[in-house]
Amino acid sequence: MQVHDEMRDEGAVRPHYERFQQWLERQTGETMARKRAEADLLFRRVGITFAVNGDLSGTERLIPFDLIPRIIPADEWALLERGLRQRVQALNLFLHDVYHERNIVRAGVIPAEQVYTNAQYRPEMQGIDLPLGVYAHIAGIDIVRDGRDGAFYVLEDNLRVPSGVSYMLENRKMMMRLFPELFVQHKVAPVAHYPDLLLETLRAVAPEGVDDPTVVLLTPGMYNSAYFEHTFLAQQMGVELVEGKDLFVEDNYVFMRTTQGPRRVDVIYRRVDDDFLDPLAFRSDSALGVPGLLTAYRAGRVVLANAMGTGVADDKSIYPYVPDMIEFYLGEKPILKNVPTWQCRRPDDLAWTLEHLPDLVVKEVHGAGGYGMLVGPASTREEIEAFRARLLARPGNYIAQPTLSLSACPTFVEAGIAPRHIDLRPFVLSGKTIQMAAGGLTRVALKEGSLVVNSSQGGGTKDTWVLE
């Protein structure tokens, strides 16, 4: 399978990597190993760890950090940024539409049952007008580059509670600490202002009439796998980190308990899933949410970022329709391509998928984090046959895609410097305008030949440089 090398083109170093390559050739293996040990020590000291969901031992792990950055030239980033703005704008218009006029369904562009029987669709959101019409205030869009044509593809849209931005910020701080000379030699676009952009976005969507909004970050608590990120972002933005028990609803307003007495809350950046947000409206056994929150939200007295019900737009069963959304709402051709997708609920697509299982990636439509999927080329015959039975039992639960040969970037591994597959998650903020820090989180599959970059499955991260 042909692989696009981010650093080299048929052996020659690509122009945007030339200066870095000259620097890299002057580094010894001992120097790099020492710097990596220093990075691990610093990350552990700061507490940059994550817990794996389902790991009953409760152990916290470091996400492996790679010393070799992924470098993106200015012209490539300009294309990506235009495509990301277009895509996120269309997704927000789609969310407003399916909870209001339903024009896209009436026009027959997306089948009604795909939207309204979707587990992520929230009937409670029907008819609620949100400030600026924004539902997905923070979007993490997963981008890959295919080896065959070198083109960028969107692999997934994350619109519920996208995570990982703290690693983007900490990776940059680490690289500047370890290798300050590199930032003298390269004009790298900054990312440190992301928390300021995030706070500006959250303040921009405050309820009508609120000029100086109180913003809080709602976390499920310290046992959540992304708790480090929650504490980090709250601290960076200068807002309170709260749990459900710290908030209460009175007269359709949300208040925070403080040592000076109750304080009204206007915007909640929530890192808690829909089901757990309000035990009176959703799961009655939730201890993570705030009783009455939905009523206050429907009354327009508080704003949630991201909105409830955004999951219907990032569900894998809706993903194939995003290019149609862009044409329907914006009258434009998509700048970023989707990966070709077979919807197994369709008999023809199912038949084709079953025939080509060893060559395909098959994903659960509600799955996440690399779980509940089959990577055909990397699976045994037994695994493929077991998955075939699951697919036949519930075809509507799955989509299939070709196995993309994700682009590769040089990575410092035990054996030295070797190519490893990568993806990119830029973070797109929607408020009064659409903004983003240049770059995003580059995730890397550290096992040789592996295409799974998720941290829960053994992946690591790199600093992402966009050259100015």
UniProtKB/TrEMBL annotation:
UniProt domain Circularly permuted ATP-grasp type: residue ranges: 69-445
One Pfam family it belongs to: CP_ATPgrasp_2
Protein name (database record): Circularly permuted ATP-grasp type 2 domain-containing protein
Extent of the signal sequence: none
PANTHER family per record: BLR5612 PROTEIN, SLL1039 PROTEIN
